[in-house]
User: Fold this.
Amino acid sequence: MIDASTKRTAEHEINPLFVRRWSPRAMSGEVVSNAEMMQLFEAARWAPSSFNEQEWRYVFAVRDSEHWNTLFDLLVEANQAWCKDASHLLLIASRRKFTRNDNDNAVHSFDTGTSFQNLALQGAEMGLVVHGMGGFDAQAARDTLKIPAVYAVDAMAAIGRPGPLENLPEGYQKMEAPTDRKKVTEFISEGSFPFE
Ligand SMILES: Cc1cc2nc3c(=O)[nH]c(=O)nc-3n(C[C@H](O)[C@H](O)[C@H](O)COP(=O)(O)O)c2cc1C
Assistant:
């Protein structure tokens, strides 16, 4: 796996883990151990959330298990093409209402995204592939997994051990490189909202 920190430059001094984390697609098909997966979920656990609601939920499936196809079949074909070599697939959902008073929680997906980023950074630290995905059928996920209406279906993710480029379909081989970012000055503004 490419060390993204050798391809990316931070404008300001930060922990190198932030630029080392990226979303590769090439995986080996080896299984990530349950103990390692628990380390990822432990990192997810410590995310901040509104009123400490901890509204994120992760459904996982490990390859070659009876649950694998349930999650794999939700993915669009373009994602199935490289997720075939993943170790685990995740379906990520968030509770839309606070458990304490049943009020709407406007930031449920914000909190859950934070939790996923914790998981992704832990994965990067451990040399694992962690790759978020929006390319899946959320309604089919709701129907198949019988996800109650109070939960939003947010995203899926693939987790695996890094693998050779040749495991990827040709089109994806060319895309297997860390992306760059906007400059900080393009997304911050003091006191006004100048963004189009
Ligand atoms: C919520 C979310 C959904 C994404 N959906 C997909 C997807 O369906 N398929 C895919 O190949 N990559 C997907 N990505 C990966 C992004 O394209 C990637 O994170 C982005 O280009 C930034 O690159 P980096 O993660 O390597 O830094 C998704 C990422 C996130 C966070």
In short: The longest strand covers residues 151-160. The helical segments are 17-20, 34-45, 68-72, 77-83, 108-125, 138-145, 170-175. Residues 30-159 form a domain with the NADH Oxidase fold (CATH 3.40.109.10). The mean pLDDT is 97.
